[in-house]
């Protein structure tokens, strides 16, 4: 590693939001060395939230969602070439084209991909989609524009709900199949998920909960025509969107010795990656959806986030720490935030709703479909979700940051309303859901290693 941290070779693996913002931040921080950005997609970095919103509504095309560059990062872009391995001893990133990239410091920002349908032959039927990439969105938007008779959405998380909302806005019949008791229950808990279920049905969605899709059906010529459900029913449809959550892109790190697994790559609060033995590295950093990092406000458990804001803020922290000596490094302590627009509602979240034991409606009401729900854990505020009351969010962010007592007192934000009586937050076990939370608590240890004691004879 060079003596001057502002010089040397930095490689960023992942050419999406976190990778781009980190590259820009490195130059802003004064890094003058060589910078290489590796991406498995051939197109430059683009924005993903519009793919399930404006693109599916026909308000924008998938090729117009490119991310604006805040500055030219003067990087060597290796696009369309996935990373296939990492040699931490030789400090080299191995690429699918047989090339290798030496580095002094590495940033892992490989993000996630859509979880595919588990049966490959069924998932390959014409008319079956996932939604993660620009190419996915372009293909699905084209099918929706053609006016299908019915769309089947498998999974009632945020992505599945936004797809269903777009379908109804376009006047397309849609069925949503969710294994759990309601849409969004894995992210928001039982009380707010009841409102989500009402909104689905009020907008004409054929919502099926407590069921799984057991088979996708073809017509014999390779076209999707419907699905069989676990309750014995059948849904006839000509388009299917599999919205079963995300898979973290860590397979290329299998032999790297890093603490990389299904929940992501574990790192410390300064974005430095852990090895599989819990030893922190000093030359490998992590940012964005692929990371797992500790947060003091949430019991120092490692958080996995699929949030736009987290990718931006963590990338900035990682870039700063990559070019700064130890005493000048700073922690990534941003409060998780998230937003979604569906069925005419603006839903915004701050904190970690799944890190809760009780909830209370502090403002508004479920009946008015305009409210603030505050989440608490062991007597302190840990999260808040607003429905069409986003201006209250900063008030509750401050309560989370200051570990304010739960339930919150009357007089929250700009309205002197007494809070309701707290009720259990009713956060389900993720294993009973088709969708997963966009914020997940993933334990305390960088990796879990199980030792087997062999007695001597």
Plain-language structure description:
This protein starts with 8 loop residues before the first strand and ends in a 16-residue tail after the last strand. It is built from 8 helices and 30 strands. A 6-stranded mixed sheet has the order 3-2-1-7-21-20, with helices on one face. A 6-stranded antiparallel sheet has the order 24-25-28-27-26-29. The chain has helices at 17-28, 120-123, 134-145, 158-169, 185-188, 190-202, 308-322, 393-401, and strands at 9-13, 34-39, 76-79, 83-87, 92-95, 100-102, 105-108, 112-114, 128-129, 150-154, 173-178, 206-209, 213-218, 224-229, 234-236, 239-242, 246-248, 260-261, 264-266, 272-274, 280-286, 291-294, 302-305, 337-342, 345-351, 358-365, 370-377, 380-387, 423-424, 439-441. The radius of gyration is 23 Å and the shape is globular. The longest helix has 15 residues, at 308-322. With 457 residues, it is α/β, with parallel strands linked by helices.
